From TrEMBL:
This is Deacetylase sirtuin-type domain-containing protein. SUPFAM superfamilies: DHS-like NAD/FAD-binding domain. It comes from the Eukaryota. GO terms for molecular function: histone deacetylase activity, NAD-dependent; NAD+ binding. It holds the Pfam family SIR2. Residues 1-118 form the Deacetylase sirtuin-type domain. It comes from Bambusicola thoracicus (Chinese bamboo-partridge). One of its GO terms (cellular component) is nucleus. Keywords: NAD, Transferase.
Amino acid sequence: MISSEVYSFYQTVISVGCEEDSCHGLLRPHVVWFGETLDPDVLTEVEKELDLCDLCLVVGTSSVVYPAAMFAPQVSARGVPVAEFNMEATPATDRFRFHFEGPCGTTLPPALARHESEIIA
């Protein structure tokens, strides 16, 4: 069941109208809502990028919500390091090289910060 706060937010987001004179359409963020499917062209592009990546960061619920949940294990199976940032361990955590437990706003910045041993050319 969807909480009243989430429903209220969702209704607010989808009821914001376009301000162009002749449009009168509703604006919507560039997101995929629960229950919606991803554009097949987007999935094709994701597959291409996954083939090229040398590091995968899984931030938030992406390690349990499909189809995004299948991306990191696919990359990990190729030997690419995967770092999961989440409030708790997930069913996929054991497949990843790194797991950072806690709020992403707290765990992500230090993980992405430049290490003192890095040389900037």
